[in-house]
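B., you asked whether I could sanity-check this one before it goes into the benchmark set. Here's the sequence:
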Amino acid sequence: MRKVVFGLGAVMAPVLVGSLIATGCSEENGDGGLGGLPDPAELCGPCGDILQGDVGISGDARIDGVFKALGNMRNATLSIQADFDGEIRALAEVWGVEITGEVNADVVDDLVAEIEAEITANVQGELVVDYQPPRCEASVNVAVDVQAKCEVKAGCTVMATPPELSVECEGTCTGGCTGECSGEFSCEVTAPSIQCEGQCEGSCELEVAAACEGTCRGECTGTCSAQDSMGNCAGSCDGTCEGTCELSAAASCSGSCTGKCLTTPPSGGCEAEASCRGTCSAQCEGSCEGNFTPPSASAECEASADCQASARAEAQASLECTPPQLTVDFALQANIDAEARAAFTAKMRELRVRGVAIIQGAAKYEALITGEVEGRVVFETSPLEAVQASSEGLEDIDFEGDFNVPVLKAACLLDAFGDAVSIAGDLATDTGATIEAQAAFVGAFSGGFGG
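And here's what the prediction gave me:
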């Protein structure tokens, strides 16, 4: 991953010195050469900092958008790393695990081993974790906004009425679709309680006893993995459940569905009350899980393609992930006294809260760097690779003909490319250990800590 950016820095240095010579920050301050020019900060303001999210490094939105995306990505990974470190240290304190150095996979393994030992000592049967991974999607709003602003700064005449907040989505569109939404169970209806003829995502109030693919709360005809204080089932049921089934994943519901009902669209797409969660044949007006193309805000703009590259990069670098859907059920052993019960239950509450935060952060971290979430491909080209591809595209730019970078910004731009080399190198080398440690915790948690 580092090769692209290092190559870019080597190519850009002589190009910038030769081709930016013609322009200054204003008509008054260009003197025809770099030699003897004042400090850029005196005439153009201080040079921008990629990691601070500054948007005026070069003065051209198409270039600065790539820098901003790279800075956003680095800041996001640093924030997730810090949050992960803090959450693991907090759990280690709760569970009595000493950490003397950095948080890594070995530390996580020690913590997991302690949690597993206490679960074995206190829980009757197994810990039941119903789990759905987070969903990570790039923001359509960010992409459209960046595209429009970039085209304005490039001198294009934008439409009097700006484009709708929509993109051409090559993956899964969640929200509105201006064309046909297709795919099995891709129409989503949300209501407090409805009869669902497709798959229910949430909870199902069973009208008659039926199999439950999740947590059964009520009577279980068979073996229940956990019970509540009233003796009712509060875990997985290997027979039939009578009561409420809290579904761990979208599944058929032979009763009333509370949450979301997913149905397969008829010919022509989803009905009016339903939104799309599938392949959209036209414009996606929600969020896009996958590659996408932002709409142009100008009827004719030569800079549109360059703007789309930076807009896509910024949107993917600013992706958001939903929290995982997670329930944790267990039944304590009968011989545990009240004080021990209270202590263990408090630990489990802490584990769930911090565990959800860790899993959500891990999903975003992995999606940014690899384009995957727990082995499932979200972006065919990862956001990191997309930013690097956008950077690589700058190698072929005719700065004298296509861009208008002030001569006194040349030093700033050279510094920015140097920073980009360093940032890309850090992203390529400093993320593997965190991904490994996060994966160790997520795997243990979603698997019920060996239960």
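One thing to flag: Residues 61-94 form the longest helix (34 residues). Otherwise nothing jumped out at me.
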